[in-house]
Design a protein that fits this description.
The chain is an alpha/beta fold and 83 residues long. It has one domain. The chain has three helices and seven strands. The relative contact order is 0.19. The N terminus is likely disordered.
């Protein structure tokens, strides 16, 4: 368990096993967008306890459909989503 607010357990989505899931468990993630120069951008997700830099370097890349609604400035900047 990475945290507890009295009613919910906040679990690390990477390390918890399915057999340990309980009702009301919560999972927090961090999502970061990265601009690559003036032409490209991409978004990544990782555990909430990672730094933004670690998420950008080692996180899972989101699809454009997942990332676009989260990052208005990137979506409207004229940059192309890196696939």
């Amino acid at each position: 368990m990475t945290g507890n607010n009295g009613r919910h357990r906040i679990e690390n989505k990477i390390t918890i096993s399915l057999s340990k899931l309980q009702p009301r468990d919560m999972f927090a993630i961090k999502v970061v967008a990265v601009a690559y120069g003036e032409n490209w951008w991409s978004a990544y997700e990782g555990p909430e306890n990672w730094t933004a830099q670690r998420v950008a370097l080692h996180g899972d890349r989101l699809s454009e459909e997942q990332a676009a609604p989260l990052f208005y400035a990137m979506r409207t900047s004229g940059r192309t989503y890196y696939r």
